Structure formats: structure tokens, C-alpha cells
């Protein structure tokens, strides 16, 4: 029997590390997906194409109105039931986090792009850049400083929300901690560990956000 | 000389509101055309239509004899029709030189060394050779506007469009920008200029186009236009400007 909290954590370190790795993997994949799709969403909503704008607004409303947990159940239990499509739990979580994150990142990107003077787009087009080139070389770089804090905020929310994965049986860091608690009743120790773990996963992102804002402040 | 730009019955409306109404205009190679008119007469919209930032609703627009519409390859046209805006629109995330080189390198895919040599030569020409590595926000309005002109020139356009390029500048910076434009006119470049600087219009123009209510009300050589405007609307317009210039000294109380 473990005598102190630290001893317990030391003994269970391999399992906790596996769980932590899985949580970080889910978060990283979710963040990557959210970033790519979020940029596409933000660009799509500032192109001035009516049908695209309307579809993306419906997309946003759907992800805003329905809890992420419900989406997770829909993907994990709903897809096999209605479409006969069975998706592994890990992929389900990544998809849901990515698609939900995309709506949040996308709104931040859209807001930052909308805040640019309209003349900047004209000027980019006037030197012969194509519409997407104008985004790549002018509009997104101009908006990146303004979008950074908002986007990083979404990233930290994705990391924290990744613990919902437990509910469809993914063995992430939260699940491992629960299992150890069930065995040892050392809930204070394990929850303290989770507290520190999530803080350490999120805090560097906040620091990065501040650094990038400074770097891009010209 | 051949016509570089040719408009026939060209119209543009935003919704039900007509902005340009049956414009007929031909601009010859090397000609300097100054477009005057009251606010909202459509002169800026006309310039924006000439490089496809707005599309016409009816009528014909030709560039180098080739008819242009919404389906045309405007990216190719814009490389030949440079545009400078009232509020400079330099890209704040790029240094001066990178602002200028964005088009030549990304759009025209030119060799970096050759493009950079041209950019530096153009900066020299507008008196800003020492600002190549500056950030836009470090420059005055007049300097930014001269850089914006260089950015357009570095694409080697056939025509330059100037849309009220001195309207946002402090009076003491207007001169340095107008001198650059005069220099281009003297070098034989085709220019279309929208401005409210009457003395400059008179000095630089081969022809004045006076617009009112989305139509061309009158076209004439500058001397004729300023000394003897044909339409009542143009007379009225010029009187407003001369009113300010000839304002008598207030009697001291």
C-alpha cells in the first residue's frame, strides 16, 4: 500500500503517462483539425458568397446550440445506428473536438478578418493577387495578431474538453486517474495531479499567445 | 495613337441605385485624364471598375481593345492597371521593400534580384531610398503614399489609376506626392486621376472629364474647362472651389 501521495503517483507513473499521452494526442489532433477547418470557415465567411455564408452560419448554430457531449454521443452511438458506420472512439473524440473547435476558431478568424479595413483587400487584389493569395499573403498575416488570443483560448478549451472522451470509453488521463482512485481511494492526490497536469498543458499556450502578440506588434 | 481604355454606354448600379450611367470615354496611350466632380458623382466607382474591383452592370469596357467583363482574367489586367488609393493601404505586416515586392514576386514570379533592383531604383526616384527596410507605421502619410505608388509601379503597369491620393494627406505632404505623379505624366505614362486639387488638375491634365450624377457632363482641355466651363453644373462646381480661394479678408472688428 502506498504511504504518501507522491509515492502513489511514482508507482502509477507509467499508467498516468500513457493516459497523459493519450489526452495530449487527442488534444493535438483536435487542435490541428480545428485550426485548419477554422481558417477555412473564417475565410469562407468573409468571401461574400451568400450561399456559403448561410451554410456556415447554420454550421455555427448547430455547434453552438448542441452540447459537445451530445455531439460526442451522436458520433459514437448515432453513426453506427443510423449509417452503419462504426468509428473508433479515439477518432470520434478528435472529430467532435475538431469540428466544434473549428466553429469557435472560425468565429475568431472571421472577426479578425472583418476588423481589417476593406481597402486592404482591394489593395491586395489591385496588385494582381488572387482571392486566396490575398488571404495567404496579406489578410491572414495582418489579422494574425488580433486572432491569436482568441484562438489560443479555444485551444485550451479543446484540451480541457478532451476529458469528455472518458464517456465513450477512451482511456485518457482522466480515466486512468479514476481507475487508480477506485483502487486506492486516493482521490485528493489524483485530482491534484489532474489539476497540475491540465494547468501545465494549457499554461504554456497562454505564454505563447503573449509572445506571438508581442512579436507581431509592428 | 491607340486607345488603351475604352468605355461605351458603361453603366453600374448598386441595387436599384445607378452610380454610373452610360459612360462613354476613350483614353489614349500616354494621355493624362483628370476626372473631376462632386462627391458621389461616381468618379471613384469608375476607377474601381477599370481594374475590376467593381463590375459594370451594362455597356462595354475595353482594355487594349479587349473586351472585359466579370468572367475576364482580371488578375492579368490588374498587373497592367496599377491603382493607388486614398488611404495608401500599405500592408502593415511587411516592410516597405516587401510591400513593393509582393506583386512582382508572388504574382509575376520575377527573379528576386531583378525585381529588387527595380524596387530600389523606384524608391530612389521618389526620394525614399533610405526607407526600404522601414515598417509602414514608421512613415508619414506622404511617404506611405509614395511607397504605395512605387508598389503599383513596380508591376510595370501600362496605366495608373489615382483615386484621391492626396485627400487624406496633411497639406505639406501633398506636394511630394503630386510631384511624383507629375513626374510620371512627363515620362509619358497613361494616367487617370481623380482629385480635388484643382490647380494640380489644371497643371497635369491633357483632358478634364467632369462627372455629375453618374454621367460625364463635359470633357475638355484643362484651359478651356477652367476658364470657360460649358455646363451650368461645372460652373457651379468651379465656383465653389474659387469661392474658398478668393475668400476676402474679414473686416477687423
From TrEMBL, chain A:
It comes from the Bacteria. Gene3D superfamilies: MetI-like. PROSITE patterns: ABC_TM1. Residues 20-209 form the ABC transmembrane type-1 domain. The chain crosses the membrane at residues 24-44, 56-76, 82-102, 185-206. Keywords: Amino-acid transport, Cell membrane, Membrane, Transmembrane, Transmembrane helix, Transport. The keyword Calcium does not apply. Its main location: membrane. It is found in: Cell inner membrane; Cell membrane. InterPro entries: AA_ABC_transptr_permease_3TM, ArtM/GltK/GlnP/TcyL/YhdX-like, MetI-like, MetI-like_sf. CDD domains: TM_PBP2. The keyword Nuclease does not apply. It is a multi-pass membrane protein. Belongs to the binding-protein-dependent transport system permease family. HisMQ subfamily. PANTHER family: ABC TRANSPORTER MEMBRANE-SPANNING PERMEASE-GLUTAMINE TRANSPORT, MEMBRANE COMPONENT OF AMINO ACID ABC TRANSPORTER. This is Amino acid ABC transporter permease. It comes from Pseudomonas typographi.
UniProtKB/TrEMBL annotation, chain B:
SMART domains: AAA (SM00382). InterPro entries: AAA+_ATPase (IPR003593), ABC_ATPase_HisP-typ (IPR030679), ABC_transporter-like_ATP-bd (IPR003439), ABC_transporter-like_CS (IPR017871), MetN_ABC_transporter-like (IPR050086), P-loop_NTPase (IPR027417). It is a peripheral membrane protein. It is found in: Cell inner membrane. GO terms for molecular function: ATP binding. Keywords: ATP-binding, Cell inner membrane, Cell membrane, Membrane, Nucleotide-binding, Transport. Residues 5-238 form the ABC transporter domain. It holds the Pfam family ABC_tran. CDD domains: ABC_HisP_GlnQ. Belongs to the ABC transporter superfamily. This is Amino acid ABC transporter ATP-binding protein. It comes from Pseudomonas typographi.
Amino acid at each position: 500500500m502506498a504511504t504518501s501521495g507522491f509515492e502513489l503517483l511514482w508507482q502509477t507513473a507509467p499508467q498516468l503517462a500513457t493516459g497523459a499521452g493519450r489526452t495530449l494526442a487527442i488534444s493535438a489532433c483536435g487542435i490541428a483539425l480545428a485550426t485548419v477547418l477554422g481558417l477555412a470557415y473564417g475565410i469562407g465567411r468573409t468571401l461574400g458568397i451568400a450561399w456559403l455564408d448561410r451554410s456556415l452560419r447554420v454550421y455555427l448554430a448547430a455547434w453552438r446550440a448542441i452540447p459537445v457531449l451530445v455531439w460526442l454521443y451522436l458520433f459514437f452511438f448515432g453513426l453506427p445506428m443510423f449509417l452503419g458506420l462504426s468509428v473508433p472512439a479515439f477518432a470520434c473524440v478528435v472529430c467532435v473536438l475538431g469540428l466544434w473547435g473549428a466553429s469557435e476558431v472560425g468565429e475568431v478568424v472571421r472577426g479578425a478578418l472583418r476588423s481589417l479595413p476593406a481597402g486592404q483587400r482591394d489593395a491586395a487584389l489591385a496588385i494582381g493577387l488572387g482571392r486566396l493569395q490575398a488571404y495567404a499573403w496579406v489578410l491572414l498575416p495582418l489579422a494574425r495578431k488580433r486572432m491569436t488570443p482568441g484562438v489560443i483560448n479555444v485551444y485550451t478549451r479543446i484540451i480541457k474538453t478532451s476529458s469528455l472522451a472518458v464517456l465513450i470509453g477512451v482511456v485518457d488521463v482522466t480515466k486512468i486517474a479514476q481507475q487508480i482512485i477506485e483502487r486506492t481511494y486516493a482521490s485528493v492526490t489524483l485530482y491534484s495531479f489532474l489539476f497540475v497536469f491540465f494547468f501545465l498543458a494549457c499554461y504554456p499556450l497562454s505564454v505563447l499567445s503573449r509572445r506571438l502578440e508581442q512579436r507581431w506588434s509592428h | 495613337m491607340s486607345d488603351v481604355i475604352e468605355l461605351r454606354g458603361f453603366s453600374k448600379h448598386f441595387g436599384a441605385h445607378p452610380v454610373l450611367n452610360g459612360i462613354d470615354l476613350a483614353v489614349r496611350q500616354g494621355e493624362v485624364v483628370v476626372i473631376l466632380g462632386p462627391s458621389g458623382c461616381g468618379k471613384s466607382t469608375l476607377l474601381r471598375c477599370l481594374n475590376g474591383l467593381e463590375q459594370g452592370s451594362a455597356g462595354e469596357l475595353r482594355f487594349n481593345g479587349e473586351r472585359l467583363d466579370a468572367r475576364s482574367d482580371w488578375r492579368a489586367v490588374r498587373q497592367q492597371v496599377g491603382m493607388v488609393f486614398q488611404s495608401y493601404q500599405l500592408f502593415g505586416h511587411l516592410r516597405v521593400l516587401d510591400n513593393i515586392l509582393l506583386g512582382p514576386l508572388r504574382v509575376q514570379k520575377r527573379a528576386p534580384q531583378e525585381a529588387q533592383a527595380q524596387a530600389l531604383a523606384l524608391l530612389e526616384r521618389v526620394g525614399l531610398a533610405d526607407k526600404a527596410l522601414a515598417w509602414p507605421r514608421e512613415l508619414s502619410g506622404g511617404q506611405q503614399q509614395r511607397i504605395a505608388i512605387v508598389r503599383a509601379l513596380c508591376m510595370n503597369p501600362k496605366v495608373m489609376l489615382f483615386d484621391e491620393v492626396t485627400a487624406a494627406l496633411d497639406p505639406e505632404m501633398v506636394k511630394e506626392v503630386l510631384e511624383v505623379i507629375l513626374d510620371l505624366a512627363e515620362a509619358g505614362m497613361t494616367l487617370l486621376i481623380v482629385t480635388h486639387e484643382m490647380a494640380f488638375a489644371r497643371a497635369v491634365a491633357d483632358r478634364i472629364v467632369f462627372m455629375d450624377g453618374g454621367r460625364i457632363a463635359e470633357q475638355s482641355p484643362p484651359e478651356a474647362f477652367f476658364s470657360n466651363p460649358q455646363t451650368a453644373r461645372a460652373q457651379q462646381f468651379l465656383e465653389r472651389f474659387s469661392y474658398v480661394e478668393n475668400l476676402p479678408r474679414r473686416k477687423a472688428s
